[in-house]
Amino acid sequence: MDYYSKFLEILRLRELTSSEVIRNLEIVFARYGIPEILFTDNGTQLTSREIKEFANQADFTIITRSPAYPQANSQAEAGVKIAKKILSNEQPWIALMNYRSTPTSLGYRPSEMLMNRKIRTRIPEFSLETKVPRKAVFQNHQKRRQQMERQFNQSRGAVDLPELQPGTLVLVEDLNQRGTVVRKHTEPRSYDIRLNNGGIFRRNRKGLRALPTVMLDIPVENPTPQSTPVSTAPSTPARSTPRSSLSPQPTKTPVIPYSTRSGRITKAPLDYSK
After folding, report:
1. pLDDT tens across 217-247, in order?
2. What is the pTM of this model?
3. What is the DSSP string of the chain?
4. How far apart are CA 82 and CA 16, in angstroms?
5. Residues 178/171, Cβ–Cβ less than 8 Å
6. Average pLDDT over residues 176-191
7. Which residues contact 73 (CB under 8 A, 6 or more apart)?
8. CA 256, chain centre distance (Å)
């Protein structure tokens, strides 16, 4: 799916290999030209050395989304849903043609925005010629995207998470394992995490929870024994001590302040009984 025009292309893969993906990409590039950026998931057929060499030859950049976070590539996920609905139709070619000739929320059809003309369908058209104001459409697209992002953040109470520094102890939520931040990935909001078993995984910032690293400063008593003066007074019979006084007194465990997901520092409540 084209990110700008929402123009959808459906091709059949005979096998899930890098060579088959490259063969279909060559067909698409021959029809519409070579894109600047190709957004993909982290499938092995899309991250292999073979397809990276093809990207270098064709002069385009491959950007992969964060693993275990499909929201990062929402445009492709929406395209997959539309393609499945089209293929479930009795006549998929007509359903695909109707999609390409239906105006989007920006007021223009995908075919108009991609090819600057309307495609001929079974619905009569007065004229197939059109002129799309690309600059105005792009500005409307950016404005609509920012508006939807703002509404989503307000409805969900979303906030920008603080960046993680190398060496930060984190919890990888989908794996339920602790790890250490190695470095920030080249992709936005992604980090490389080294788990305790030595494996390095890439995860989105949303799936990482920073763990507290507060150290308690507990003084160490001097273990050197001290001489005790011997009393010369006559000894008195020892009195029995009540059992209740010998029982150990409960000690309060100090509460370590920790940082929540939103960045707020949580502290222990004040004890007014003292």
Report:
1. 444 445 444 444 544 445 455 455 444 444 5
2. 0.57
3. --TTT--------SSSSHHHHHHHHHHHHHHH---SEEEE---GGGSSHHHHHHHHHHT-EEEEPPTT-GGGGHHHHHHHHHHHHHHTSSSHHHHHHHHHTS--TTSS-HHHHHHSBPPP-SS--S-SB----HHHHHHHHHHHHHHHHHHHHHHHT--PPPPPPTT-EEEETTTTEEEEEEEE-SSTTEEEEEETTS-EEEEEGGGEEEPP-----PPPPP------PPP-SPP-PPPPPPHHHHSPPP-PPPPPPEE-TTSPEE-PPP-TT-
4. 21
5. yes
6. 84
7. 39, 40, 41, 65
8. 29
**What is the rounded distance in angstroms from the CA atom of residue 51 to the CA atom of residue 101?**
32
CA quadruple 32, 38, 39, 43: dihedral sign: positive
